[in-house]
Design a protein that fits this description.
single chain, alpha/beta, Rossmann fold, 6 helices, transferase
Length: 167
């Protein structure tokens, strides 16, 4: 999970209001780059009960009850998770580098932050805080625009294009 940059996300969330929660779904694979124990320890130390590690969940539950999906890994080659979140009506926040950045137009279909910059990520997350009335218009507009532009057909086209194939 080290390559997923969960520590960056935890650091950003630590500076947000007491209602912001970090939920990690999935689990470490035991590889050299797996720092799930470090993420868990840091998350619990910095966020306390605002850090929730759910481990593996059924695929159909991955996006359940989420306000926002954050992609912290700027080296992610394809944003399948981004497309799935957009199709499901979940707002996405992505870094300005990597495959996910190709799928989101800032303030139109989600939000974009400077890759590797936890302070900027915190600012972006604060701008879409579900508890903030001022952020509700931006959230609603971005969610609607994403729902209007991301269809199962466009999802398949994006995904196959990234794989070098065509429909």
């Amino acid at each position: 999970m080290k390559e997923k940059h969960h520590l960056l996300l935890a650091e950003a969330i630590a500076g947000l209001n007491d209602e912001s929660v970090m939920i990690v779904r999935g689990s470490g694979d035991g590889s050299v780059n797996d720092n799930s124990d470090e993420v868990r320890a840091y998350g619990q130390a910095e966020l306390g009960n605002r850090f929730i590690d759910e481990g593996k969940v059924a695929p159909e539950r991955v996006l359940d009850n989420l306000d926002v999906v954050v992609v912290a890994n700027h080296r992610e080659p394809m944003g399948r998770t981004v497309l799935e979140a957009q199709l499901s009506g979940v707002l996405v926040v992505v870094p300005d580098q990597g495959g996910s950045s190709e799928l989101v137009k800032d303030q139109e279909t989600g939000r974009v932050y400077r890759a590797g910059d936890s302070n900027h990520l915190r600012e972006v997350l604060a701008s879409i805080d579900p508890a903030s009335d001022s952020a509700s218009e931006l959230r609603a507009r971005a969610l609607q625009q994403a729902q209007d532009t991301v269809t199962p057909q466009s999802y398949a086209e994006h995904y196959l294009s990234a794989l070098g194939a065509a429909l």
